[in-house]
């Protein structure tokens, strides 16, 4: 990175820091703040107007949790981006994932945790807004807290989309990824098998489809944001996928909400390219595993320790 790029990053980080407003939330350990995300609009009548910035900003809800072992100086704390599913996200004073023991396990093992809502809707679909928001939150946290530069990323259900697209955009800051019952195919898992009546409309809004009703799939608008299709190469009968970090997936084989075979394909494609991807197939039809259980939580800890 050149001197000019470093200067721009420094100024941008300072601006993010000045725009965020930390406050306590529903738990004494919760730190809530907002981060500004520049809004981009696709469309327009001429090529010159396509993909132009509007110059407007959306202030996204963010949560940070620090472990008891955190100190303002000395050894930095490792940070984890926990990307929530469609069941609930981040508000100005609440966080859906506070309801699950996974968060307690991570904190007890000395990890700091953050998440962002990723836009006005909980169903952020791993789109540009949530990816930018998560990175801006990371910049703010790094500036104001004693945090390691490289982080872990965990994606839960729909958070498979947001966590994976985050890694594609910022691989240099990620050590490894854990995925619980993840959505990894925007079209075949989310569009063709929507988990809520609002899911297709959410996709249409996130990716700025011309038809915002959610009745029509518009492949050109979603291009580049479907994780299963990123970095794909066909070699003879094999599909190869280049993936920048080690990943481990936990998925119930009978999950009817988010089908497990896509996790199997994700692993197969990465292994075909000699990448690192582990898959623990669980004998379960419970999509609730997307928020963990004692066995999965323990295995995640062992995986993260190996990746340190």
Average pLDDT, all residues: 88
Beta content: 15-25%
Count every helix, treating DSSP H or I runs of 4 or more residues as helices: 9
User: Stretches where pLDDT falls below 50 for ≥5 residues?
Assistant: 1-26, 41-53
**Radius of gyration over all CA atoms, rounded:** 19 Å
> Which structural class is indicated by helix and strand composition?
alpha/beta
Helix content range: 25-40%
For the biggest β-sheet, the strand order reads 1-2-3-5-4-6-7-10-11
| DSSP E strands, number | 11
N-to-C terminal Cα separation, in Å? 25 Å
Mind summarizing the main beta sheet? Answer: 9 strands, mixed
The arrangement of helices and strands along the chain is HEEEEHEHEHEHHHEEEHEH
Principal-axes shape call: globular
Please give a structural write-up.
The protein is of the alpha/beta class and 308 residues long. The chain has nine helices and eleven strands. It has helices spanning 3-19, 101-108, 128-144, 159-169, 186-191, 199-206, 219-222, 261-272, 294-307, and strands at 23-24, 30-40, 53-65, 79-83, 112-116, 151-156, 174-180, 232-235, 238-241, 247-252, 277-282. The strands form two sheets. The protein has a nine-stranded mixed beta sheet with strand order 1-2-3-5-4-6-7-10-11, sandwiched between helices. β8 and β9 (238-241) form a beta hairpin. α1 (3-19) packs across α3 (128-144) and α2 packs parallel to α9. The longest helix is centred in the first third of the chain and has 17 residues, at 3-19. The chain is globular and about 50 Å long.
